[in-house]
Design brief:
single chain; alpha/beta; L-arginine/glycine Amidinotransferase, Chain A; three-stranded mixed beta sheet; 6 helices; 15 strands; globular; binds citrulline
Amino acid sequence: MKIAIARELSPSLPRCELTHVDREPIDMNAAQAQHQEYLAALQRLGCEVQVLPAEPDLPDSVFVEDTAIVLDELAVITRPGAASRRPETATIHATLAPYRPIETIESPGTLDGGDVLVIGKDLFVGLSSRSNAAAITQLDRLLAPHGYSVTGVELSDCLHLKSAVSLVAPALLLINPAWVDPDLFARWGQIEVDPREPFAANAVSVGGALIYPLGFEGTQARLDRAGLEVVTVDTTELQKAEGGVTCCSLIFESALSGS
Ligand code: CIR
């Protein structure tokens, strides 16, 4: 079965980290409703959704993707690049332990899960303001025995690698070529975002469909033309916290049910 780990929004979300966007007031009621809509979409697409309780003192804790990389063989607990986010990992470690052997990224490594794009046995890691070369070295050491290759990727103008490129089908990427070099991914098919929609490259592929943010009509038309099934969710309030759709869940297969 497919498990999706998520976490309730923190009431302190308005104090979230921001890097590339200006702070705007977040309507917490609307943000809650949007998050519920996202969780419902995960459920409709076949996930057993396990929602952790809110962490009142950890503003960005809804963005669980940044705290772990879950592969078939093991899970790696990250060491988030923003110091304010490091305490988020303790509960994720405990939550994932029944499902996978656990490894951890250690200082001086810093890594946000949003920087890790997994395509089969190839991992690409954004060298962002959050993730560094020391973490890539550690990931390589942990994952090479399981047959993975780990490659660092330069980025421009965005928070995480998966703001610039995400997997929309087993060998097909959605990419903003202004933020990451598409030649690095020449082995896979690519759909480019509509150039008027630079923030449109982040999609969650689950259950044969895509969870995709409402409002990127130009790019969505390209996804439709490629024959992809798209389920849109309104994430405008979460976008004010610089969150995309991948960042609110950790999705993986397991024979164990969480319930
Ligand atoms: C942060 O800056 O860490 C949060 N405000 C947003 C994190 C979004 N994470 C993601 O896209 N993987």
